[in-house]
Amino acid sequence: MSTVKEVKERFKTPQPLEQLATNMRELFQASSGNGQKVPEVLLLFAYNGTGKTRLSMEFTRQGTVGDKSDTLYFNAFTEDLFSWDNDLENDEHRVLKLNSNSQFFSDAYGMEMETRIRAFLHRYADFDFSINVSTWEISFSREEDGTEVLDIKISRGEERLFIWCFFLAILQLVFDGDDAYSWVKYVYIDDPISSLDDNNVVSLACNFLKMFNERNNKEIKLILSTHHALFYNILHNEFTEKRIAAPYFYSINKDGYTLKYSNDSPFLHHLALLEKLKEAADTGELYTFHFNILRVILEKTAQFHGFKKFSDCLGDAKTEEEVEENACLINLMSHGRYALFEPREMVPDNKEHFKNALNRFLARYPFNLDAFKQN
């Protein structure tokens, strides 16, 4: 049997998706040693388009024998178990249909799911629902001006939120050790928070953490992947403080998939971008798309500090004209064909403007770039 340290070393080497899923399973089954214990949680940060959903399905496939699996998952395929019948003929009776062939629903039959789902849903939403267990259909309603409006079509964001709460109701049964879900050894959750605003993201993360921390079945292992930095950081801070998680940055290159261990500090993607910009500025290898990256960081910083313009984040300058000149160039070079689709090396004057703006920004906002390098 491999040790935790040995398995973690394998993550550093680019490998096929199938092998990565195998190594993830081996991490949970490895032996402790050298002060490294088997984690309860595997936490992955990854950008969209890197194969997060495919990894979750490969992990599930490796634990499936016949029609029996050891993994309860939430991902894009889970959402596909729900489909709308919009009653196109009469435009009246709109329902969300459930795929009755899925074990996801069949094990929950007779579990008073409406009550269980409402316990989660009403924390985030103002609509209600009813489940017809004979037809496997869900209808929605909302109170408007004191009147209940029936058979409404909820928004895409509300639909995703409802499906997540449906999953949480089932997950609560798993964490409680209900016999109907005794087959679950692993819970794999991939990006549950798309289409949610930051307020709901924080609330969802905190409520999920409370639920996980209070679980009765301590043997359940959790894998959670996300592209949402705020959601990731909330979970990272909680799990690493309790020393129960192995947090990683998941990425792909031409040689395969890797996991970069990020336990020293929360993985903040803006630190990674700033570190790359600083490196490019120091070496002089600056390309037009670097203006686009800088613009994104400036916009987010301005929004966080309540400024109306990103140029307000460029700090004090000798003259107002100097700040406006930098801002104008950043604005120009981060749009249209100058941005990402025709990257080319900056001319010398633009390099100086870029360095000037970046250094002024970093002087005003001294981000700890070493926090990213330590990872």
Describe the structure.
The protein has 14 helices and 13 strands. Strands 4-10-11-1-12-13 form a 6-stranded mixed β-sheet, sandwiched between helices. Strands 5, 6, 7, 8 and 9 form a 5-stranded antiparallel β-sheet that branches. A two-stranded antiparallel sheet has the order 2-3. The chain folds into 3 domains: 1-70 and 185-266, Rossmann fold, CATH 3.40.50; 77-159, no CATH class; 269-373, no CATH class. The chain is 44% helix and 17% strand. It is globular. The protein has helices at residues 4-11, 17-29, 52-62, 76-79, 103-106, 113-121, 156-175, 198-213, 229-241, 269-283, 289-305, 320-333, 348-364, 370-373; strands at 41-45, 64-65, 68-69, 71-74, 82-85, 95-98, 128-132, 137-144, 147-150, 186-190, 221-226, 245-253, 256-261. It is α/β, with parallel strands linked by helices. Helix 2 (17-29) packs across helix 3 (52-62) and helix 10 (269-283) crosses helix 11.
Brief characterization of the structure:
The chain is an alpha/beta fold and 375 residues long.
Primary descriptors:
375 residues; alpha/beta; Rossmann fold; 3 domains; 6-stranded mixed sheet; 44% helix
| SSE ordering | HHEHEEEHEEHHEEEHEHEHEEHHHHH
Weakly predicted, low-confidence segments:
336-342
Shape summary: globular
What is the CATH C-level name of the largest domain? Alpha Beta
Total DSSP helices: 14
Major sheet strand order = 4-10-11-1-12-13
| Alpha-beta classification | alpha/beta
CATH architecture of the largest domain: 3-Layer(aba) Sandwich
